[in-house]
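fyi for ur records
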Amino acid sequence: MKINSTTNRPISADAVGARPESAAAQAYGAVAGGSASSSQVALSSASRKLLALQEGSNDINVERVASIRAAIASGQLKIDTGRIADSLIASARDLLK
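which gave:
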């Protein structure tokens, strides 16, 4: 496969539908004199929940991870392979339904 070289030509602002500076400033609520207007944004309860989830503080049970890490280090962690196999089979059955 051959890739042909192309020349980069600048695209005019009119070609991409750009607006003049003052129109863009008006669209985003800026005052034409260069001073910014004050505005407030109210977040919905759903957006606040999403922000809380994004922080990641609720993702990991640090105490549980520490106890598992200690059990692995001391050799006391017992893995039930039969339970793992049963769960994998049940999951595959659910997917096939």
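The CA atoms of residues 6 and 17 lie 24 Å apart. thats all i got for now
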